[in-house]
Amino acid sequence: MTETAVKEVEVKFYDKEKGFGFFQTSNTSDLFVHASVAEAYVDQLIAGQRATVEYRSTDKGLQVTKIISLEVDGVASLKEHPPERFITGVVKSFFHDRGYGFINADGFSGDVFISAEVAGKVKHSLKAGVRVRFMMNTSAPKLRASAISLI
């Protein structure tokens, strides 16, 4: 398999000092996860915790290429849709004088950060309660919106 696949998994273990760990599934071999993929999540990877990951087969076995979501207290706290899909949500707040705000994304817990720079031409229309469509980046430690438009 050279393509990536998505699977719901459980953390088997993660060793922060060694910089790697494994996820387990009910019907495939364990999935190796390297620190470069788990970087934003290393303090949250606890044995038994549920996650959704992207993985691929390598000459060394199955390897996680991206952590899509990670459950914290039973709620998927970080999640990313494929890049070709837009996410919808409602502006929670936007501080025009400070140049940033937050969006409540439909189906996600936690706030999504939006900067005035990313908001571009629509920034003057952003206020609490306005519905928006955007792409979400979870590669940073915090969720960030990009390519935002009004609905």
What this model shows, in words?
This protein is mainly β. The protein folds into two domains: 74 residues, OB fold (Dihydrolipoamide Acetyltransferase, E2P) (Beta Barrel); 64 residues, OB fold (Dihydrolipoamide Acetyltransferase, E2P), CATH 2.40.50. Helices cover 5% and strands 52% of the residues. The chain contains two helices and eleven strands. It has a six-stranded antiparallel β-sheet. It has a five-stranded antiparallel β-sheet with strand order 9-8-7-10-11. About 5% of the residues have low confidence.
Numbering strands along the chain, what is their spatial order in the largest sheet?
3-2-1-4-5-6
Q: Kindly state the percentage of residues in helix.
A: under 10%
Which class of the largest domain in CATH terms? Mainly Beta
CATH architecture of the largest domain: Beta Barrel
Which fold name is given in CATH as the topology of the largest domain? OB fold (Dihydrolipoamide Acetyltransferase, E2P)
CATH homology group of the largest domain? Nucleic acid-binding proteins
Low-confidence stretches: 78-84
The shape, in one word, is elongated
Number of domains: 2
Share of β-strand residues: over 45%
Q: Give Rg in angstroms.
A: 17 Å
Tags for this model:
151 residues, OB fold (Dihydrolipoamide Acetyltransferase, E2P), 2 domains, six-stranded antiparallel β-sheet, five-stranded antiparallel β-sheet, 5% helix, 52% strand
